[in-house]
Specification:
single chain, alpha/beta, Spore Coat Polysaccharide Biosynthesis Protein SpsA, Chain A, Ubiquitin-like (UB roll), 5-stranded mixed β-sheet
Length: 277
Amino acid sequence: MGSSKPLLEWHGSTLVRRVAGIVARGVSGPVLLVRSPGQWLPSLPDAFEVLDDLEEGRGPLGGLSVGLEALAGRSEVAYVSSTDVPFLHPAFVRRVVSELSGGVDACVPCVGGLRQPLAACYRVSLAPLVQSLLASDRLRLSSLLEACQWRELDEETLLADPDLARFDPGLESVTNLNDPREYQAATAHPPPTVQVQWLGGGDPSGTPAPSASPAPSGTSGRVTVRAATLAAAAEAIGVRFGPYLVASLNGDRMRQDPEEPLAEGDVVSFDRPGAGP
């Protein structure tokens, strides 16, 4: 790419912040980021755990080893993602993880005839096998698949999930960025389409709560906008994002991070504290 992929900007946030946040929405356990030793990352929410790769030059398998070992005793399955997939949708993450069944160690999507081992799920119990492959200098993810029981998820299987079929019918969730040309194409891609509503109540032109501007007239109901972050969604309806603004995503999980990523089909609600339901 010519520069650090995690730090690349995409519609108001960095790739690492966006992808980590989307993965967090698709899983119910901890989210771990494995970086090169000493690699600088932007400020991230405390909920994300940042780990250092043990040795440079070991490729994705080295990072996978660190992550799986850190999850031992905390989770049974790990969804694994590269950092350069800005179109990743939480429904894709949920679909891949849901397909892992008994007797299978990994589920790997195959989209457009290409396997996606960095958009896949693996059992945490594979950690010793991964470590043995590294010790033998077998560094390709394909070596792991050759040594375990895995299942390929074709496009038809993936799109059998109604949410994924509705919000990511082209399975752009696996689109990664390998060079500046692909990055420029990704930045030209519009942000997700989301619905935003203001629940502040009263006259939208009235005096706002501290650090929050009122929504403009006519935005008390849902409006459809393009926004990749919570801050962008607030701005789209004329509300300044701040500590006195309450945000809700898809009816739950109240959030205060302006860079919280949004995905196609999300519904965002903003409110003043104590001003509404």
